[in-house]
């Protein structure tokens, strides 16, 4: 067989993926096997994948390939998310560059552009996943805006509204002024900011006195409707029931009391702006205060701001400070460190704004979701995320599910009048008209008099249903597929979407199906760049994964990522990890080429070292399999890969192949048939263990070893079964390798050629058990013989070393010193070493023969010094002995 000298990942990966697809190995259909299902966290159709997606999908592919080989009916469902805010922002930006406006072209035309964008990027994303080697069931590809999933979303909205879970109401929400939409609390990123705290004086009505409040946002005074202090704060008890005048607008507002106020912040007096702070809104509701909205959708100020109308909020802040200074109402300004919220998608500063929105009640549905994690019905890896999960769930708020966008699932609400409650909730216009005629008591209401809510649902409102909706389990709750595949096996995701997605899926599973949606959640760490920033599309700080795959190969990238990752732990991405993966690929390829280069003989004679190597490798393999699987089952995927990496690199290549390969100089490179067949047998077993991590090279070599039928492909082969192993064999072999290592180190340090054989004298306590492995030591250390002795050899030069309590002596008798040795360990060098140790001995003895020193130091230190004296003496004696030998043989 003509095997290429160099492994070419590009050609192999393309060929092998085509082979898998052609044979339909990724597909899954309900049958009599146990299902193993993973729903892919759908990447947003906002661009290409970054290195974090590569990590996440590599982990999923490893799990799904492992399950497939273990005999499960593996089903990995791929998909993409429509990502309302991010995608709409991207398309709006693109159109703007072409001089086009979303508003000018209208909803229908704009959505055509978004769909075109989505289709393009869906294909890019799927192509990238295929290049990575992801064995998804592409027949089951999902898109959160597909007709089937959209139908499910609509039905859930209608059902939950009818059950009283969904309601419409005014509330202070997070507002993204760039995207002009609301955001959930989880979509706001808070960052530390050094700003200013302004102390403003509000004149008390009917008095010349002032009350001072502290604020970071003086531009919001136009929305002030009260001043508030804590009921226990005696400093302000005289202000109870009085009024104060708001600067500039000269409007009087009441001074009230509420226990929410922090007496230690600022002056202890708080200005209440209910339309722009959720806590202020709560106080306003309690005290029946007026609510004044001062912002437009784009965060410019509206007509309530008088002469600042139409100006940007930050520009107003600068201008209003100047005006307040002129009015002499600024008492003090100081630096203030506080947190500011930014939109996760557009990175604009978020405003809190009173708005009429749709909300989903969360408190009741959170109870079974908390219990499922608490009782272990759903397991988290690592467990540290339990605490974060419970904290968030215990403080859960109603979910603001409406978004002021055009791209997304249109809210299935239809209006027919001007009153707040003139609406119906229905799955389509026809059903809505029937409901509206009934509710309005107007049987003549026409299609032209009813209109759908222009808003769309939060993107996560479709994603939280995925374990159910991908199997049509919402519209057809008892269909064959949902019955077979649900609940799914696990979710692999970043910890940053624990609340966005994981917690909500758990809630929807129990609410809609009365059963958990998955059994386990594996949290990946966050991939960070060299500046410790999270790698993300928005920061544009991810290396191009396709460039990495083209340069190093997909297997190399996968392996590099997996060696660095650990459940729940962040890590810094460095390109050199891909280089390590490529080196490993080459090592495996070269091992295969070496085996294939051997000629097979039917010779009955098999060297002892080969028989020992086969016996050892068999026991070593099943020991490694046991340790590997224990780590794998605990999701220590990095540890299991490192176990395999070391086994292949060191045990299989550095020892086993070195032991059994033809002796150096053997021109016909022949090995006994039994040795060759055993080498191939265990190499195939190794390829099985390697396959989930490095699928391309393992499948390629598997098919090059011998011609196979499609049903014999590695991807669908059976995982090796555990077998008992003799641990003592592993211990004795390890001791033999340590002896080999010691001898090789002595050769390297002293420039003794490896091809020159030496003699080893051994003083071993367990000579009988360990002597069995002497043939391996003889071959790999290139020894002429191993001679057991009871004491140190005399009248010959040697290097000695210890292994545990055993001592060994490596004789130099076999060397031609004039040719090999005197050039490297010359007489002058030995004499200098003797001189150095003699000086050291003099210093040690100077202390030891000093009574003052001896009596002042501890016994431990004295013992150490005496041991040092003895060791130095021994070194001098051996060096002098060796010097004498060199001079004699010069």
Number of DSSP helices? 29
Radius of gyration over alpha carbons? Answer: 38 Å
Structural class: alpha/beta
Instruction: Determine the strand fraction and express it as a percent band.
Output: 15-25%
Helix proportion of residues, in percent?
40-55%
CATH class group of the domain at 554-725: Mainly Alpha
- Poorly predicted runs are 814-825
Assembly state (oligomeric) = single chain
Distance linking N and C termini:
53 Å
Instruction: Name the CATH homologous superfamily of the domain at 554-725.
Output: Isoleucyl-tRNA Synthetase, Domain 1
CATH architecture of the domain at 554-725: Orthogonal Bundle
According to DSSP, the number of beta strands is 31
Task: Give the averaged pLDDT, no decimals.
Answer: 91
Shape: globular
Please name the CATH topology of the domain at 554-725: Isoleucyl-tRNA Synthetase, Domain 1
Largest sheet: 7 strands, mixed
Characterization of this structure:
Residues 814-825 have low confidence and may be disordered. By secondary structure, the chain is of the alpha/beta class. The radius of gyration is 38 Å and the shape is globular. Strands 7, 8, 9, 10, 11, 12 and 13 form a seven-stranded mixed sheet that branches. A four-stranded antiparallel sheet has the order 6-5-14-16. A hairpin with a 4-residue loop joins strand 10 and strand 11. Among the domains are: 189-352, Valyl/Leucyl/Isoleucyl-tRNA synthetase, editing domain (Isoleucyl-tRNA Synthetase, domain 2); 554-725, Isoleucyl-tRNA Synthetase, Domain 1 (Orthogonal Bundle); 826-890. The chain is built from 29 helices and 31 strands.
């Amino acid at each position: 067989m003509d095997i290429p000298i160099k492994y070419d990942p590009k050609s192999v990966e393309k060929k092998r993926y085509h082979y898998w697809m052609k044979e339909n190995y990724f597909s899954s259909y309900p049958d009599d096997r146990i299902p193993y299902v993973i729903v892919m966290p759908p990447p947003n159709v906002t661009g290409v994948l970054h290195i974090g997606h590569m990590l996440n999908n590599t982990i999923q592919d490893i799990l799904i390939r492992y399950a497939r080989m273990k005999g499960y009916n593996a089903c990995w469902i791929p998909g993409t998310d429509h990502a309302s805010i991010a995608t709409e922002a991207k398309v709006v930006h693109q159109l703007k560059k072409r001089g086009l406006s979303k508003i000018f072209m209208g909803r229908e035309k704009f959505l055509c552009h978004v769909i075109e964008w989505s289709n393009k990027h869906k294909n890019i994303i799927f192509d990238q996943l295929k290049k990575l080697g992801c064995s998804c069931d592409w027949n089951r590809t999902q898109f959160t805006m597909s007709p089937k999933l959209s139908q499910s979303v609509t039905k859930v909205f209608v059902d939950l509204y009818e059950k009283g879970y969904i309601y419409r109401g005014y509330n202070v929400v997070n507002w993204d002024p760039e995207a002009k939409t609301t955001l959930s609390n989880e979509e706001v990123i808070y960052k530390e900011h050094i700003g200013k705290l302004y102390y403003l004086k509000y004149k008390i009505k009917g008095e010349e006195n002032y009350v001072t409040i502290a604020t970071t946002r003086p531009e919001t005074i136009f929305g002030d409707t009260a001043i508030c202090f804590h009921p226990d704060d005696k400093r302000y008890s005289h202000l109870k029931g009085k009024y104060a005048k708001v600067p500039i607008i000269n409007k009087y507002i009441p001074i009230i009391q509420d226990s929410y106020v922090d007496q230690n912040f600022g002056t202890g007096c708080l200005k209440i702006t209910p339309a722009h702070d959720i806590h202020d809104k709560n106080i306003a509701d309690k005290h029946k205060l007026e609510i004044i909205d001062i912002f437009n959708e784009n965060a410019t100020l509206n007509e309530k701001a008088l002469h600042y109308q139409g100006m940007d909020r930050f520009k107003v802040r600068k201008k209003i400070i100047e005006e307040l200074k002129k009015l002499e109402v600024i008492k003090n300004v100081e630096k203030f460190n506080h947190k500011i919220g930014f939109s996760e998608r557009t990175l604009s500063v978020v405003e809190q704004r009173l708005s009429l929105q749709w909300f989903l009640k969360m408190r009741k549905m959170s109870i079974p979701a908390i219990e499922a994690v608490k009782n272990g019905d759903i397991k988290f890896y690592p467990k540290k995320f339990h605490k974060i999960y419970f904290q968030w769930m215990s403080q859960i708020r109603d979910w603001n599910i409406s978004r002021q966008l055009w791209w997304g699932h249109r809210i299935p609400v239809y209006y027919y009048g001007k009153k707040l409650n003139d609406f119906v909730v229905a799955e389509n216009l026809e059903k809505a008209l029937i409901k509206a005629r009934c509710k309005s008591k107007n049987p003549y209401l026409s299609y032209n008099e009813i209109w759908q809510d222009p808003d769309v649902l939060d993107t996560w409102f479709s994603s939280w249903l995925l374990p159910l909706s991908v199997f049509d389990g919402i519209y057809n709750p008892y269909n064959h597929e949902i019955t077979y595949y649900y609940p799914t096996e696990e979710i692999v995701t970043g910890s940053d979407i624990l609340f966005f997605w994981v917690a909500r899926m758990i809630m929807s599973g129990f609410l809609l199906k009365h059963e958990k949606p998955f059994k386990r959640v594996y949290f990946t760490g966050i991939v960070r760049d060299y500046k410790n920033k999270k790698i993300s599309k928005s920061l544009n700080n991810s290396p191009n994964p396709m460039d990495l795959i083209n340069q190093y190969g997909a297997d190399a990238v996968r392996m590099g990522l997996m060696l660095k990752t650990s459940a729940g732990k962040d890590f810094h991405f460095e390109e050199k990890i891909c280089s390590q993966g490529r080196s490993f690929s080459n090592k495996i390829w070269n091992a295969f080429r070496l085996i294939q280069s051997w000629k097979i003989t039917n010779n009955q004679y098999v060297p002892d070292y080969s028989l020992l190597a086969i016996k050892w490798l068999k026991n070593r393999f099943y020991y490694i399999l046991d340790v590997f699987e224990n780590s794998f089952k605990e999701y220590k995927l990095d540890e299991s890969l490192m176990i395999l990496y070391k086994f292949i690199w060191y045990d299989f290549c550095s020892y086993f192949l070195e032991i059994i390969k033809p002796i150096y100089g053997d021109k016909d490179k022949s090995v006994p048939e039994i040795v060759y067949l055993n080498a191939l047998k265990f190499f195939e077993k190794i390829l099985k263990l390697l396959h989930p991590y490095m699928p391309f090279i393992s499948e390629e070599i598997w098919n090059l070893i011998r011609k196979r039928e499609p049903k014999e492909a590695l991807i669908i082969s059976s995982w090796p079964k555990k077998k008992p192993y003799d641990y003592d064999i592993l211990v004795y072999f390890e001791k033999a390798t340590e002896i080999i290592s010691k001898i090789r180190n002595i050769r390297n340090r002293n420039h003794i050629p490896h091809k020159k054989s030496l003699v080893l004298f051994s003083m071993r306590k367990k000579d009988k058990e360990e002597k069995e492995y002497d043939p391996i030591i003889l071959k790999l250390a290139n020894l002429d013989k191993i001679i057991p002795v009871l004491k140190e050899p005399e009248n010959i030069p040697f290097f000695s070393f210890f292994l545990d309590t055993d001592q060994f002596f490596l004789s130099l008798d076999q060397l031609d010193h004039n040719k090999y040795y005197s050039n490297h360990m010359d007489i002058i060098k030995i004499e200098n070493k003797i001189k150095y140790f003699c000086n050291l001995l003099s210093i040690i003895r100077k202390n030891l023969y000093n009574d003052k020193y001896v009596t002042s130091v501890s016994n431990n230190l004295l013992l150490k010094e005496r041991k040092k004296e003895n060791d130095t003496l021994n070194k001098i004696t051996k060096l002098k002995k060796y010097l004498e030998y060199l001079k004699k043989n010069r």
